[in-house]
Amino acid sequence: MTGSWHAWHTPAELCQARGHPDSGGRVCVAVVGVCVAAVGVCVAAVGVCVAAVGVCIVLCINGEGHLPVRIAVVALYLCVVLGVGLAARRRDTVARGASGYYLAGRLLGPLAVLATMAATNFSGFTVVGFAGAGYRIGLGFYPVMAIGTGLMAVSFAIVGLPAHRIGRRLGLVTPAELIGARFGRGAAGVTACAMALFTLPYLAIQPMAAGYALEALLGIPYVIGAALVTVIVALYVLAGGMRSVVWTDFAQGILMTAVLAVGLFVVVRATGGGAFTTLTERFPALTSRPGGDGSLVVGIWASYMLLWFLADPMLPQLFQRFYAARGERPIVISMALYPIVTGVLFFLPVAIGALGRLHVPGLVGKETDRILPMLMENLGGDWLAALACAGLLAGIMSTMDSQLLTMGSVIERDVFGRGRGGRGLAGRVAIVAMAVGGFLLSIRPPASILSVATQAFAGLAVLFPAFFAAIHIRRVSAPGVIISIIAGELVVALSYAGVLSWPGMLTVVPAAMAATLVLLVDIILGRMVQGRIGSAADDAWFEDAASGLGRTRLIGWCALVTALFVLSVDWWRFGVPSTVVAGLPGWVWYFFALSVLVSLAFTGLGRRLLRYRAGGSPVPSPKIDSMNSSGSR
């Protein structure tokens, strides 16, 4: 594959490389024209938002009711988001080409990596879906999500650090290119198609949540609200790429967290003294396990933990952050702090949803996903309702923008094989196509946000064994990886269709087992066939993948993570009535403490990993945006 990862920094160079030496000027003019048109559209959108703000302020002054206040606040928020996105684009002068647009020049520092990873992972599912699950299931949904996602951060060391080193050395941009660098374009294409197929329903969750929020808080029809957010996100992604996404993610993450914290305070205050004591007395199942609907039995609980562990690092928008980091330290710092962030933030929407049963009883099915905006509408007053709407949109848009950007790169580079020299027309068309596809799926959502997300995550979790094998195992072949992915996705598809059922567990368990079993058979066959060493990978590849911990320490760290996983499924508390301690059920404090313990453990692991790389085996550090491979992969 030598020579297949080149990047050309100007249109003229691109044309010359493709055998069109005289076309550089025409291409340059076309590119400039497209850029000017995109900027013009964004400026027009900003103008519309500013005009809306002005009209709403006039209406408020004239006493035309509460709705203009909310519209003005939301319009102002959308103006700020567009402004931040355009400002980030103007600063994008360090790196051009694919890594400049899709990876912000591989220059993201610790704070930027942590903020964009958190904001990318905390989506409409987190804000609206968690509240709906809290309403149906209760507080038990909090540790399933918080500890499961916090423990997932160990994959930053298992997959993230090696992917960062390999990607930086080979100039990789998309997750599937890592598979392609090891196993060829066929395996990369299968991986990319699986990512696109299962990212689309997760993408649809974002306009779904936006539609619910804008309908409940502003009276905007569901479809129009979903379309509005989709268009605005697509605009600033097209304008500024990863740099715009990171800047807006940072601002949106702060706003989302603040709104959720204030929202919980308002709901607790409206409930009166001892809110969770009252909840325990009136709805005891909501503060104990297996939850209000009885769904969180031990097998389902453990399945959810496994689902987040396998699926989250395979989210293409999160995986791409491994490539974008300036070095290894930002990834390690993110791994150490992630359990604390999830341990605090995930409690807020779940608690709001659970307490919502005291204020808005009787919701069922998909209606439960509306509980958070309904509470803000009923309890918060005009200004909080307006800020809550902006905060909900922040959580939604901070994920949707990353999904569109990453899937644009995947479809452009892996599915169509275009754009090796940078952001091309295929990438922009792919971004628009994914935005339209997500919106169309959101018009008639098939189930609750939790149900949609669970199926989408199961399809992505199937990819984890293939990526792990690609990075760490020599004797694995391209056909083995392809069959592994197909077998796992087939289990997911048959389960979704109702042909297969798995009582007491989620689909991710048998699907991941099927994918792993295929790879194990492939590895065994590789050892049996004399002379077979698997698909192409040289010593530099496995040096990049090495942890440097040594076998004894590696076994010790694996045992520690396993022990933390076991402690996270506190089966001995299932079915036991909850006792309120310092205003919260006692087992909630247990999981707060466990989040801190996981963070401390990952801090120690990160220090070990950095010490090895700094002392014994430095990572190659080629020039930014170099897309050259030094040898055949």
Structure description:
The protein is an all-alpha fold and 633 residues long. It is 73% helix and 1% strand. It has helices spanning 11-17, 24-61, 67-90, 97-103, 110-121, 124-136, 141-152, 155-170, 175-183, 185-218, 222-271, 275-282, 298-311, 316-324, 328-345, 347-359, 371-379, 381-415, 425-443, 449-461, 464-472, 478-496, 508-528, 539-545, 551-568, 586-615, and strands at residues 580-581, 584-585. Helix 6 (124-136) packs across helix 16 (347-359), helix 10 packs antiparallel against helix 20 and helix 18 (381-415) crosses helix 19 (425-443). It is globular, with a radius of gyration of 24 Å. The model is unreliable at 1-65 and 616-633 (pLDDT under 50).
Q: Helix fraction?
A: over 70%
Q: Main sheet, how many strands, which sense, barrel?
A: 2 strands, antiparallel
- Report the end-to-end length measured between terminal Cα atoms: 6 Å
* Strand order in space, largest sheet: 1-2
Q: Give helix and strand order, one letter per element, not per position.
A: HHHHHHHHHHHHHHHHHHHHHHHHHEEH
Mean of all residue-level pLDDT scores: 81
Radius of gyration over all CA atoms, rounded: 24 Å
Strand content: under 5%
Q: Number of DSSP strands?
A: 2
Give the structural class: mainly alpha
Shape: globular
Helix segment tally: 26
Low-confidence stretches: 1-65, 616-633
